[in-house]
Design goal:
Layout lengths: L18 H22 L7 H25 L1 H16 L1
Length: 90
């Protein structure tokens, strides 16, 4: 049962006279802080490498498709064929 303290405000359960309760509350608070710190420092970017790899692969595939489309065009094919013929004629 909670009691009002002498200042007239209710600050939670009255733990005076029960040292075990205070010890339990301190241990609980320490445990919660420990869990919070472990959560914050537990490599929050662990799965980020996989996501970055996927984005890079999608971009590389798009670039490769664009390059194939450009190289298949008649103008570029003629330009490359002439370039190779000139290189081989030297």
């Amino acid at each position: 049962m909670e009691r009002l303290r002498s200042d007239g405000l209710n600050h939670g359960p009255d733990i005076s006279g029960r040292p075990g309760d205070l010890t339990r509350r301190v241990r609980t608070t320490i445990c919660l802080w420990d869990a919070r710190l472990r959560t914050l420092t537990a490599e929050p970017e662990k799965g980020l490498a996989t996501a970055e790899y996927a984005v890079v692969m999608i971009a590389a595939t798009g670039f490769a498709g664009l390059l194939v489309a450009i190289l298949k065009s008649g103008t570029v094919r003629t330009l490359l064929t002439n370039l190779v013929k000139q290189a081989l004629s030297v």
